[in-house]
Amino acid sequence: MKEIWELSRIPVRFIRGVGPKNAEKLSKLDIHFIHDLFFHLPVGYQNRSKITPLNRIEPGQYQSFIVRLGELRELRTKNGRKVVNAEAYDDYGRLELAWFTFPRYLKALLEPHKEYLIFGKTDFYRGRVQMTHPEITPYDPETSLPDHLLPLYPLTAGITHAYLRKIIKTVFNDYEEYLREFYPPEITAALSLPGLKEAFYRLHFPREEKEAQEARNRLAFDELFFFNLIMERRKAEKERIRKAPYRITPENRARFIKALPFTLTESQNKVIGEIEENLSGDRLMYRLLQGDVGCGKTVVAAYALYCAVANGQQGAYMAPTGVLARQHYETLSAYLDPLGIDTVLITGGMSRSAKEAAHEEIRTGKARVIIGTHALLYDKVEFEKLDMVIIDEQHKFGVAQRKSLQLKGTMPHYLIMTATPIPRTTLMAWFGDVDVSSITAMPAGRGEIKTVLRETSAREKIYQFAEKELQEGRQAYAVYPLVEDSDKMDLRSAETMFQRISKRFGPSQVALLHGKMKAEEKTDVLQAFKKKRVKFLVTTTVIEVGIDVPDATIMIIEHPERFGLAQLHQLRGRIGRGPYSSYCILLTEPSLSESAAERLQKFAHTLDGFEIAEIDLSYRGGGEILGLRQHGGLMMKIARFPGDKGLYKKSKALIKDHRLSAVDFEKGADFFFPARQEAE
Ligand code: ADP
Ligand code: MG
After folding, report:
1. Nearest atom of ligand 1 to the alpha carbon of 439
2. pLDDT, tens digit, for every residue of 177-208?
3. What is the mean predicted confidence (pLDDT) over 308-332?
4. Measuring CA to CA, how many Å separate 270 from each of 188, 275, 407?
5. Given this model, what pLDDT does residue 12 score?
6. Is the pLDDT confidence value at 270 over 90?
7. What is the C-alpha separation between 567 and 478, in angstroms, rounded?
8. Which ligand sits closest to the CA of 302?
């Protein structure tokens, strides 16, 4: 029998009319499986039956017109591209139509002075209003106008609205049997919302806005329903796990703190208390540690590891990159060595013999704390007694990776650290039942960070300023969006600017660091920068997370509008780590758009990560929350908070009243939250 979840596994190239080329294009819209096509939500609807006279054109809007055509003309644009033009007119005005690729069937279809229905978005082109690649059909008052509203989709190059509509209709035809209702009648009755098939169809092709709304509500309900079922299952699983309580004495804690090179902040102490309390009980710790860049999360992690080791266990610390793993290895050893705790580093770049030696130490239990990257997940790494897992900058990890680490111990405690503030509902969606600790204050004695926008014409002045800082023993970063120059984008790249900056500052002072370099090279460069053999690091976003060089006070970011604000915030977090005043300089082009400038100004005016996340959201819309979407977990595609709280509660109540469990609804659950996403 055909089952709904299978739609999450059938690739779009199996749809009639979708060839490999179009499948490739669809993948740019994140449409890989039939399932994704159902969830490719319209951003709005167009009433195609509403005809606009040509004196009422609104450039930038999708509109329908009934027009007659003048002669077709074949021209060439300035840069030699072929273009077919035609003038469209009605009793009220004119509009230029243009095709850069002119399909043969159109040539046969279009005749001067006959009536056509056209639909599309108009734009200004050299002072005239133009519509490129209109959807055009001969106008017949009986049949031309559709009986439903037309969905407007997010598009990509080569994928048109007409094409998406066509294949979605094909899917409804050919895969109809998969869309069987999965609720028992008592639930459908309680819902008074459209059925499953109807809902999906009307989400894409509603006859009126209200119908789209009801369809959306039904599917949002489904999403929340399955979300709740899955969460309950996860919670039940977690509750079943019992842990042997750790014994943590005040002497333990005092010993750890005494060995530190600084005094913990109040905020750090509070979090350490929360962790202690958690570990002294018989429940699993599954805790998220939030705290802005530079607030000092690492030492808290060190304490959690220390607690595990003091209780005869091993701990593991996972960093997103080899460079960071090495850095954390150094920091953590500095904290833990004085306490007689053996640490070991494992990275992909290590030699085989070094790796084997490390594996041996981990297996026998000589190494108590293991620091590494994904290499930690490779099967060869066997732990003696793993009971504490720290995951740093978790947004760089997929869910599957977390799972496989979990299997290595007997369900270890978890501390997941992030500098990216995550809204509560997203947290729930991602981790389920998670406890949250927050570090809310920065260590005292930090220098101030100033952020400014400067145009590239001020480059030399900025370099002079940087030079002065370097002479005083400070260090600088310059960050570029690209590693090397590209024909496609007119942007300065790290490699090219490395040449230029080397010349300006003297080659011995400047180094280049980017993601395409080999692991050892990266480590060497970073080491040289940390040890101040190099003072100016020209780089890309590889330095985005975690790198800690307290004397760095200058951060020059070129083409800053190319970066998300959260990313800029991470980059800026690389400076201001010592007692000196620091400067983040966003170097912009004169051509910077007004809205981009406004966004960067807002960024310049705050250092608060939460506020920045909110500004970022307001510019990007609610679609993708902080870039978490692609990382699996249970992200909502349709339901939104707080708007859908009512549906959320209703789904919870129904589950409770009817004593429903995830087991009864595997198929539906797997459709709304396909396992393949978690496996990414
Ligand atoms: P993040 O939270 O971004 O991971 P880190 O743990 O890397 O921050 O800490 C940033 C810097 O602050 C490090 O150089 C660390 O040694 C220092 N630091 C951490 N806690 C304190 C403290 N209580 N007092 C002074 N410096 C601290
Ligand atoms: Mg960190």
Report:
1. 2
2. 999 898 888 888 888 899 999 999 999 999 98
3. 90
4. 48, 9, 30
5. 93
6. yes
7. 15
8. 1
For residue 392, give the ligand 1 atom closest to its CA: 4
DSSP 3-state of 430? helix
Choose between 445 and 296: higher pLDDT: 296
Closest ligand, as measured to the CA of 296: 1
Cα of 434 vs centre of ligand 2, distance in Å, is 20
> Ligand 2 centroid vs 550 CA: distance in angstroms?
13
Residue of minimum CA distance from atom 19 in ligand 1? 296
Ligand 1 nearest atom to the CA of residue 291, by list position: 2
* Sheet containing strand 552-558, strands side by side: 449-455, 582-588, 552-558, 475-479, 536-539, 510-513
Strand duo 62-76 + 82-89: pairing? antiparallel
The domain spans of the chain are: 50-145, 250-439, 449-610
Distance 415 CA to ligand 2 centre (A): 13
The CATH number of 449-610 is which of 2.60.40.10, 3.40.50.300, 3.40.1440.10, 1.10.150.120?
3.40.50.300
Is 250-439 a CATH 3.40.50.80 domain?
no
Q: What is the pLDDT of residue 55?
A: 92
Choose the weakest-confidence range: 489-498, 602-611, 632-641: 632-641
Is the predicted pLDDT of residue 614 greater than 50, yes or no? yes
Residue with tokens 């009755």: 189
Q: Whose CA is nearest to atom 13 of ligand 1?
A: 296
Instruction: Read off the pLDDT band of 431 (50, 70, 90).
Output: low
Atom of ligand 1 nearest to the CA of 445: 25
Q: State how far the alpha carbon of 665 is from the alpha carbons of 179, 202, 226, 609, 680, in Å.
A: 14, 24, 8, 39, 23
- Going by pLDDT thresholds of 50, 70 and 90, the confidence category of residue 103 is confident
Measure the CA dihedral 392/395/396/398, to 10°: 110
pLDDT at 628: 37
- Could you tell me the distance, in angstroms and rounded to a whole number, from the CA of residue 442 to the centre of ligand 1? 8
CA-CA distance, 128 to 120, in Å (whole number)?
Answer: 16
Residue 394: predicted pLDDT: 58
Task: Kindly identify the ligand whose nearest atom is closest to the C-alpha of 294.
Answer: 1
- Say yes or no: do domains 50-145 and 449-610 share a fold: no
Architecture of domain 50-145: Beta Barrel (2.40)
